[in-house]
Design goal:
alpha/beta; 10-stranded mixed β-sheet; 36 helices; 12 strands; 63% helix; elongated
Length: 863
C-alpha cells in the first residue's frame, strides 16, 4: 500500500485503518491510498511493466492472428462498413471514461466517497452517450448513404455503457498496481472477442462478426473487472470534495475529445467521399500500426502515470526517471518504425493477403506518423502526471487543428494522400508544437525532449537503409521470404550500430539492466499474506521520522521503540516496517499501536524495509534504528541541537557503543579511528565527507540522522547489496553536502546470536566472501560520475586495500597462489608500496594447487 499520508489525512480524527488499499463496502469517508509503497515505485513499476508487456504481447498475438484470419474470411467492404460506425463512435468514446479514471489514478489522496461519486458520473455520461449513439443511427446511415449502418450502430451503442460500468473498477486496480489481475482481464476479454468474431466469420456472418467481436470483448471485460475488484460503490454524496476531480477530468476530457474528433476525421472523410472499400483498406493499414503501438504504449502508460504522479514533489528524481524512459521509447520507436517503413509491402501482403495490396502505400506513409504516437504520448504523460489540465486542453486545440488540416489537404489524393499529409504534419508540426508546450513548465524542458529525440534518430536511418537495400536485392522472392531475409539483416545492423553508437548503447544497457531486475519482481499487491498490513497515522506534522525495519524481532522491537518514546525531544514520528515477520511481531506492538505507523510487507530485505519507511516519512529529517538497538534518551535532542547550530549539514553521525555477545562495549569512533580527529572538540565537520567516511569504515546507520530531501537526491538504500548497503547509502549521501559528527555516544548497537541475526555474521564466518561482496560495493561507488579526482583516488585506494586484505586471508589459509592473485589485483588497481611489497614477498612461498579462489578473484575484478 501507499501509506504516504498527506497532512490532511494525518489531521483527520481517528481515521479507520484500511487493510487492502480498496475502500471497504459501507465505509463512509475513510481515506485510502494507492496500494503500494512509494519506496518500491521503481522496482514495482519494473515488475508491473513486465507483467503488462507480457499481457499486451499475448493480446497482440491474438489480435494479429484474428486479423490474418478475418482479412481472408471477410472483404475490405465488410471492414469499411464497421469502420464507418466505429469512426463516428470514436468521436464520443472518450466520454465512457470522461477523464475520471485518470483522476482516480493521478490523485495522491482519494476517498471511498470520491470514487463512488465518480462511478455514478461515469454511468450517467456513458449511458447518455449510448442513447445518443443509438438515436443517431439513422443520421449515420444517411451521412454515409448506406442503410445497413442503422443496425450496426444500434448494435454497438451499448458498448459505451458497458465500458463506463467498469471504468472505476479498472482505475482502482491500476491505482493499486495489481497488474496480474489487469492482465488476466484484458487477455480474457480479447480472447473471448476473438473467438466470437472468428467463429461468426467462419459461419459467413460477414460484417456482423466484427460487431460480435467488439460486443463480446467489452462485455467480458466488464464482468471480469467486477469479479476481480472487491470495491462496490455507495450512493452519490454531495459536498464531498469531488468537484476538483470532476474539473480535472473535464479538462482532460475536453482536450482528448477535441483531439479524438480531429484524429477521427480521416475515417469520416474517406468513408463519406471515397466509399467503404477505400476506407476498409485505410482502416486495416492504420490498424496494423495502431495495434502494435497500443500494445507498446498501453503497458508503459498504465505503470508510469501512477508512478510519476507520486514523484511530483521530487523534481530531479522525476526528471531522471522520465528521461530514462523517454529515451528508451525513442530508441525502440526509431528501431522498429524504420523496419516498418522499408518493409511495408511484404508486411501488408503477409498479414492481410494479396487482395489488400492497396493498403501497403498507406501503411508505409503511416509508419512515419507512428513515430509521433509513442513520443507524443510520453509528452502527454508529463501533463497528466503533473495535473496540468489546462495545458492538456491547449495542446489538444493546437494539435487537433493541425491534424484536421492535414486530412483535408490530403483528401483529394485518396487514402494514400491522407496518410502522407498526416505523417508530414506529425513530424514537422505536431511534435515541435507539443514539445514546446509541454516543456514550458515542470521538471522536463523542451530542450530535454528534443535532445532525447535527435540523439537516437540515426538508428532509424541505419535500420531503414539496410532493410530497403536488401529488399531491392530480392525483388522476385515471395513476400514471406523477403521478410525472412530482410528482418534479421536489418535487425542485426541496427543492433550493431547501437553497440557502436554510445548514446544508444547507454540506453540499451539500461533496458537490459531493467530486464535483469524482472528476475526477482516485487510481489503483487493484494496477494495473501500471513499478517494484515495497516498504518496508524500520527496526528500532527513532525520534524524527525524514525524508521525501524524489523523481521522476527518480536522479543526486541519494543525495547527499541521504548528508547525512542523516552526521548527528551518530542517532535518525531515512529514508522515500523515489518518485513514479513512470522513470530507475532505485530502482536508485540499492540501496546504502542496509537504511537506508531505500522506497515507489513512481504519479506524483501532490510534495504527494502528502510526504503518503505522513507516513502512514508513526513519529517524533514530521517533517522534509522534497528529493531534490537537502543538510543540514549537525549539522542534526538543532541542531534537537533547540533543541527540548529550547523544548518547546512545534510547528515549527522553520533558515536555509539557496540555491545557484543560478551556484553563488552566499544566505541565505534574509537574503533574506526574517527575519535582522534576531533582534537579536543565535541563536533567535527570533515572537509571531504565522502573521502572521510570511506577512509574510516565502518559506521552504524542507527546513529545517523539525514535530511529527507538529500535522500531523494542521493537515492535510497540499494537492495542489491546484502552486505555494506548502509555504507553505500551513507557514502552517496555524503556527496550532497557537509556532514557533521558528534563525539557523544548516543546509541547502543547489539550483536546477538540468533540465526536470523544480521548478515555481518556471514561475513565473520566467511571473511573472503565478505571482501568479494565489498569489492562490488566499491566498484559501484567508483562508477559515480560526480566523483572528483581525490574521491576517485580514494575509491581505488580502498579497493586495493580490500584485495590486499583478501591476500592476507588467503595466506593465513595457506593458499599462496590465491594470495598472490589478490595482491596482483591490489597492485593493478592502486600500485602502493604496500601492495607491491606484498606481491613480491608472495613469491617467497610455495604456490598452492587450488585455483577456485583465483578464478573468483578474476571474475570479481571484471577480468
Amino acid at each position: 500500500m501507499n501509506y504516504n499520508d498527506t497532512r490532511e489525512s494525518q489531521m483527520a480524527k481517528q481515521p479507520t485503518p484500511v487493510l487492502s488499499g480498496v475502500p471497504p463496502r459501507g465505509a463512509r469517508d475513510d481515506h485510502f491510498k494507492t496500494d503500494h509503497l512509494l519506496a518500491n515505485l521503481e522496482s514495482r513499476s519494473v515488475s508491473g511493466g513486465f507483467i503488462t508487456v507480457v499481457s499486451q504481447g499475448i493480446q497482440f498475438v491474438l489480435t494479429l492472428a484474428s486479423t490474418m484470419v478475418l482479412a481472408r474470411l471477410l472483404t475490405p467492404r465488410d471492414f469499411g462498413l464497421v469502420a464507418m460506425v466505429w469512426t463516428v463512435m470514436g468521436f464520443l468514446r472518450i466520454f465512457k471514461d470522461a477523464g475520471l479514471s485518470t483522476a482516480t489514478v493521478q490523485r495522491d489522496h482519494i476517498t471511498h466517497t470520491h470514487v463512488s461519486n465518480l462511478f455514478w458520473v461515469n454511468i450517467a455520461v456513458s449511458g447518455f452517450v449510448s442513447l445518443l449513439v443509438a438515436a443517431s443511427a439513422p443520421l449515420v446511415a444517411w451521412f454515409y448513404r448506406d442503410p445497413r449502418l442503422v443496425a450496426i450502430t444500434l448494435a454497438l451503442s451499448p458498448t459505451f455503457l458497458m465500458a463506463g460500468l467498469a471504468v472505476q473498477h479498472m482505475a482502482l486496480l491500476n491505482r493499486q498496481m495489481r497488474f496480474k489481475v489487469i492482465a488476466l482481464i484484458q487477455i480474457g476479454s480479447v480472447l473471448a472477442g476473438v473467438l466470437t468474431g472468428v467463429g461468426m466469420a467462419w459461419l459467413n456472418c460477414g460484417y456482423w462478426s466484427l460487431v460480435g467481436l467488439n460486443l463480446t470483448t467489452t462485455l467480458v471485460a466488464l464482468l471480469l473487472a467486477w469479479l476481480a475488484s472487491s470495491w462496490r460503490p455507495q450512493f452519490f454524496k454531495r459536498h464531498s470534495g469531488t468537484r476538483s476531480l470532476l474539473h480535472f477530468g473535464a479538462n482532460l476530457t475536453a482536450g482528448t475529445f477535441i483531439y479524438s474528433f480531429a484524429r477521427g476525421l480521416d475515417g469520416l472523410l474517406i468513408g463519406r467521399f471515397c466509399g467503404a472499400v477505400p476506407l476498409g483498406l485505410y482502416s486495416r493499414a492504420a490498424a496494423m500500426l495502431a495495434r502494435p503501438l497500443e500494445q507498446f504504449i498501453a503497458p508503459i502508460q498504465a505503470v508510469v502515470i501512477p508512478v510519476f504522479s507520486r514523484l511530483q514533489g521530487q523534481p530531479e528524481r522525476y526528471r531522471q526517471n522520465f528521461m530514462r524512459l523517454y529515451e528508451s521509447i525513442a530508441l525502440t520507436s526509431f528501431f522498429f518504425t524504420g523496419m516498418f517503413f522499408a518493409l511495408a509491402r511484404p508486411l501488408t501482403l503477409v498479414v492481410l493477403g494479396a487482395k489488400w495490396e492497396g493498403a501497403a502505400i498507406i501503411f508505409a506513409a503511416l509508419s512515419f506518423a507512428a513515430l509521433q504516437a509513442p513520443l507524443g504520448s510520453c509528452a502527454s504523460w508529463l501533463i497528466t502526471s503533473q495535473g496540468r489540465g489546462k495545458d492538456s486542453l491547449s495542446a489538444s486545440w493546437m494539435i487537433s487543428f493541425i491534424v484536421a488540416l492535414s486530412f483535408i489537404i490530403g483528401l483529394p489524393y485518396g487514402p494514400a494522400g491522407v496518410a502522407i499529409a498526416y505523417a508530414a504534419a506529425c513530424l514537422l508540426i505536431q511534435i515541435p508544437v507539443y514539445y514546446w508546450l509541454v516543456g514550458r513548465s515542470g521538471p522536463v524542458s523542451t530542450k530535454d525532449l528534443w535532445l532525447g529525440f535527435l540523439k537516437h534518430l540515426p538508428v532509424w536511418g541505419v535500420v531503414t537503409s539496410v532493410a530497403w537495400l536488401i529488399l531491392a536485392a530480392v525483388p522476385n522472392v515471395s513476400p514471406l521470404g523477403q521478410l525472412a531475409i530482410c528482418i534479421p539483416a536489418s535487425f542485426a545492423a541496427g543492433v550493431a550500430f547501437i553497440v557502436i553508437y554510445s548514446p544508444s548503447r547507454r540506453i540499451a544497457g539500461g533496458l537490459f539492466s531493467t530486464l535483469r531486475q524482472i528476475r526477482s519482481p516485487v510481489p503483487e499487491v493484494g496477494a495473501k499474506r500471513d499478517l494484515p498490513r495497516e498504518v496508524i497515522p500520527v496526528s500532527a506534522p513532525v520534524s524527525v521520522s524514525v524508521i525501524i525495519p524489523t523481521y522476527n524481532r518480536g522479543s526486541f522491537v519494543m525495547k527499541a521503540i521504548e528508547s525512542i518514546l523516552r526521548q527528551t525531544y518530542r517532535d518525531f514520528e515512529i514508522i515500523v516496517v515489518d518485513d514479513g515477520s512470522t513470530d507475532g511481531t505485530r502482536s508485540a506492538l499492540e501496546p504502542c499501536v496509537n504511537q506508531i505507523k505500522y506497515v507489513y510487507q512481504n519479506n524483501s530485505g532490510v534495504s527494502a524495509a528502510r526504503n518503505a519507511g522513507i516513502a512514508l516519512a513526513a519529517g524533514k529529517w530521517i533517522a534509522f534504528l534497528d529493531s534490537d538497538d537502543e538510543w540514549a534518551p537525549d539522542f534526538l535532542a543532541r542531534q537537533m541541537r547540533a543541527i540548529s547550530e550547523n544548518q547546512d549539514v545534510c547528515m549527522q553521525i553520533a558515536d555509539c557503543r557496540y555491545s557484543d555477545q560478551t556484553g563488552e562495549k566499544k566505541s565505534y569512533f574509537e574503533t574506526n579511528g574517527t575519535l582522534k580527529k576531533f582534537n579536543g572538540s565535541d563536533y567535527l565537520r570533515p572537509k571531504e565527507p565522502f573521502v572521510f567516511l570511506l577512509r574510516h569504515l565502518s559506521w552504524q546507520v542507527g546513529s545517523v540522522i539525514t535530511r529527507k530531501d538529500v535522500i531523494e537526491k542521493a537515492g535510497p538504500f540499494d537492495p542489491n547489496f546484502s552486505i555494506g548497503e548502509d555504507q553505500d547509502f551513507l557514502a552517496r549521501v555524503a556527496l550532497h553536502g557537509p556532514v557533521g559528527l558528534l563525539k557523544d555516544k548516543l546509541m547502543t548497537a547489539y550483536r546477538r546470536s540468533e540465526p536470523i541475526e544480521n548478515l555481518s555474521r556471514v561475513a565473520t564466518a566467511n571473511p573472503i566472501c565478505s571482501r568479494i561482496l565489498h569489492d562490488g560495493l566499491y566498484r559501484k561507488l567508483e562508477s559515480i560520475k560526480a566523483l572528483n579526482r581525490n574521491e576517485r583516488r580514494t575509491m581505488k585506494w580502498l579497493r586495493s586495500a580490500n584485495y590486499r586484505a583478501m591476500g592476507n586471508l588467503f595466506f593465513a589459509d595457506g593458499k599462496t597462489q590465491e594470495a598472490r592473485n589478490a595482491y596482483w589485483m591490489a597492485v593493478k588497481i592502486y600500485p602502493s608500496t604496500s601492495s607491491i611489497g606484498r606481491y613480491i614477498l608472495s613469491f617467497l612461498r610455495k604456490p598452492s594447487t587450488s585455483r577456485s579462489s583465483a578464478i573468483i578473484l578474476r571474475q570479481t575484478a571484471g577480468d
